[in-house]
Amino acid sequence: MKEWTQTGYRGAALEQITDVSSKVKQGAIPPTPYPLDASMREGERANVTYQNVQVLGDLSTEEFNHLMASMNTWIAPGDGETQGCNYCHNPENMASDEKYTKIVARKMIQMTRNINANWTSHVQQTGVTCWTCHRGNAVPVNNWSNVSNGKPGLRGNKFGQNTPDPTVGYASLPTGMFANYLQGTQNIRVASDKALASPDHVVSIKNTEQTYGLMMHLSQSLGVNCTYCHNSQSFRAWNLSRAQRNTAWYGIRMVRDANDEYIETLTNVFPANRKGPAGDPLKVNCATCHQGQAKPLGGVSMLPEHPQLRGPVGAVTAAATPPDANATTEAFNKPATMATAGPASNTAAAGDAGMKDAEK
């Protein structure tokens, strides 16, 4: 059985077709350990009550305890020497940083609060919590690390190709596109308005294959097809694309920020068993949060029950905007809002209006 939804003008192939049998169903979201009422947000701060509270010291002691109880469920459920509080803490000295997991958790809390405060251009007001990615696992199920090219030499090195892999839809495409496009600032676009390469637009077949591999990953991660973001009349044209393409553009930069500023900086903290074959830490991609759904957790926000993770809003640079179709460079500043999200938003809105008129 198929579900069909028209998302734009008729005749523009702007539609979503979903195989109901393979559609990812929303899993249960764990309830909060106990209600957090307004009175619990008052009183002594956590950095006064406890020692060595470096990140959540702005919370009240009760807020702090509430979040710690929730994190037990989200990341290390159960009892025992390696579960619950003991997963990060030495029970004999809770203030100690002797366990690497505590250092990692501290950095991940910073990352989560940064996303909720400074990346509303992608997560909107729904936001994220530790559960969004972990879902009860110490290490999120969907992650990536740099690939190993195998043995040196022409015969032994596949250069990341010709090995069917689920991240690229089991196609023989380069599987190392995450390292190129989900960290750093490398340009992803390959389409040009010129028939031949020019000084300001030189893209190889390998670049094209890597970009296509990334698009396959996006499609699978969100459980959507290409026209969820693109107009098939011109995949490159921003003024014909849906507003969701803007959101994805910001999302890619949000993932880069998470990998570059928060995960890679922990390289020397992670033990060998928490690193990939090339010695780099396991990083995030689109599937880490989305897990087959266009909106993680079906669009349900957990922040009302866990406002501690909204984070203090820090200084944000001028909002970046998606490039127009002919741009040859991109800005990579953190966007503050979608208010300057570029031409696609207005055009998509006009397209939805036109679609509704056509159906009257």
Automatic annotation (TrEMBL):
Post-translational modification: Binds 4 heme groups per subunit.
UniProt binding sites for heme 3: M215, C226, C229, H230
Domain of life: Bacteria
UniProt keyword list: Electron transport, Heme, Iron, Metal-binding, Photosynthesis, Reaction center, Transport
Bias (Low complexity): 320-331, 339-353
Residues engaged in binding heme 4: H122, C286, C289, H290
Record InterPro entries: Multihaem_cyt_PRC_cyt_su-like, Multihaem_cyt_sf, Photosyn_RC_cyt_c-su
Gene Ontology BP, a term: photosynthesis, light reaction
Region Disordered, annotated ranges: 320-360
Keyword Iron recorded: yes
Residues the record lists as binding heme 2: M108, C130, C133, H134
Protein's job: The reaction center of purple bacteria contains a tightly bound cytochrome molecule which re-reduces the photo oxidized primary electron donor.
Protein name: Photosynthetic reaction center cytochrome c subunit
Native source species: Glacieibacterium frigidum
